[in-house]
Protein: Cytochrome P450
Amino acid sequence: MSLSTSLFLSAFLALTCYIVLRQTQKGKTPPGPKSTNLFGGGKMYSWKWSEELYRKYGSIVGFRAGGDHYVLLSSPSDAEELLAKQAVHFSGRKEVVYAGKYRSNNKRMLLLPHSDELHKQRLMFKFLVRSTALQSYHVREELHLARLLENLIDSPLKYHDHLYYYTAGIIMAVTYGIDVKANQDILDEILSSNASFNKDAVPGAHLVDIMPWLDYLPDILSPWRKDAIQKHQMEIKLFGKLANDVKIRLGQGVDTDCLMAHVWSSQSKDKLDDESIAYLGGSAFEAGTSVTAFLIHTFLLACVNYPGMVSRAQAELDNITPDELPQYHQMKQMPYLHAVVKETLRWIPVTPLAFPHQSERSMDYKGYEIPARSLIIPSIWNMHRNPENFRDPSVFDPNRWFDPDDNGHVKSSSNLLAGHWAFGFGRRECPARYLAVDLAWGAIASLLWAFDIKGVTDQSTGKAMNIDPDMIPWMDGVNIEPAPFPISITPRSSVHITKIKSKCSA
Structure:
């Protein structure tokens, strides 16, 4: 045997031994199903499928979809450890070609990688939801609440539209400083854009996000690219005009108290370009409008199925504010209502699967290897529906949160955001969470004060009908809500109607 052959064989043997040794030293990946087919994105992002995986494989599940490795976390302690305590390694985002690169020009906060751009946008967003700002919004919120109640008196069957009108009206006011009544056409465009993006952003919604090499094909073979760019151009025209109108008012010396006014005033310091500013306003709309409307819609579903909850909450409201609409300064006086809002956040989470975090490096965790660039999905649904976390988790039961102080008020230590995981983890926690729960409390309190809310009457039995959440369609996307369902929403008395009408005309 020649020397060169011997050296080659020795080198080959050494390389083989090294590879085998590396494989044996590497931790095993979490258990899970076989790789999904290339078109499995829709099923992959189903919260019901995540529940099946948890029951079959446990609280840490690994699987491949397309060319990506996913890790599904169903334990809040695992999610806290990886996504919060080790957030520096688990706060990335995979580039989303359709919704991120082309539809958003890599400017949309939800899809931004862990970067300076993300930091600057989130810092600006904090201005919108700082505690002093939330208090200053209450006057605006109470006006929009009165409008919501009046609309429900006049056309209760359109309750779904009225919920969006309420949440979007407030967000339009605090983001752009304008009244929704004079901008209905713009509002309709924004809501349509939000609904479209909610579907486009679902991981695997578009083939190019599963097979990124398709992005190298020419435009003639990539009609999806033209579609995404057209949506981007429409969004920039829409969000850009709203943002620029604020800039014009500032230049004219008009007193404009809103998020966009603050952003424009800080532009030279924070160095956000005009397109980033436009998308920052759009992100405020997406985060504040849809999440809150979906949350209130889910609450109405609970009212249909749990009339005892409605009666008890109304009794508390009648004790505290029998003759006037509830106000935010009374929040701490109503511990059962506090528990109702908190249970609404837990029962059917608006975002059942948090948007995937991308790992920045490989890591060994609990004997499993989490490869670098893995996509980590916290299943909020599994966490909230685990009987180890919540007794009888499918039941809407505010009593699990009801714990008043000695004076019968909400405990000073109690927090609507604590004890559940509805808004995600770590550096990717929903930045609009404080505003969302504020708006939800106001709407839930006012709806219960003003209306009897129950299922429609079954003509054969004369009783109100329940609606099984598992038996009705849900509108899928990154966020979910039930499709409109039959419901009876009637004013509690003529006195309530008079109070609402007078509030609207004031």
